[in-house]
Amino acid sequence: xxxxxxxxxxxxxxxxxxxxxxxxxxxxxxxxxxxxxxxxxxxxxxxxxxxxxxxxxxxxxxxxxxxxxxxxxxxxxxxxxxxxxxxxxxxxxxxxxxxxxxxxxxxxxxxxxxxxxxxxxxxxxxxxxxxxxxxxxxxxxxxxxxxxxxxxxxxxxxxxxxxxxxxxxxxxxxxxxxxxxxxxxxxxxxxxxxxxxxxxxxxxxx
Length: 206
What we know:
Blueprint: H1 2-8, H2 13-32, H3 35-40, H4 44-49, H5 55-58, H6 66-87, H7 89-114, H8 124-140, H9 142-147, H10 150-166, H11 172-205
Helix pairs in contact: 2-6, 6-7, 6-8, 7-8, 7-11, 8-10, 8-11
């Protein structure tokens, strides 16, 4: 059993599972129409007046159309798989969901401030959180920085944010919120890991 765990520990279980769940939920939405969207999307009245706080989480698994789903899932699978090998399964999941929830909270705050009745769905905030995690790794992890160019990561993030602001019907507040939360939580992870590795090396030398 132990050799089996060692052999498959680098498999992107979390990233793959998230993609599968999102696709299954989308297929269910195709047959049920607006049922899940009306009950799971982020909108200020449902969350603040009806206290439906679960919307902040459920919205991460809802997508408006096939293109929306495909764009998020292709990034989630490939970027998530790469990061999962670096952070491990649990940390990848933690950062993903914290980024998604944080992005949706920022989106909700913006809706309240602008009195917007719009409803937001999608995993984009969580996916942008993975971009933030990637940025934290290239900044604070020397080994990872040798494999991935910081300049390319910054360019990718800038273009992604810019593309969002140039598009229509896009919740950029969730994107930026998820990106910031992903970077902050990713930074904590990398810094703590660096300190732990440094301590372990010191103990080995002693």
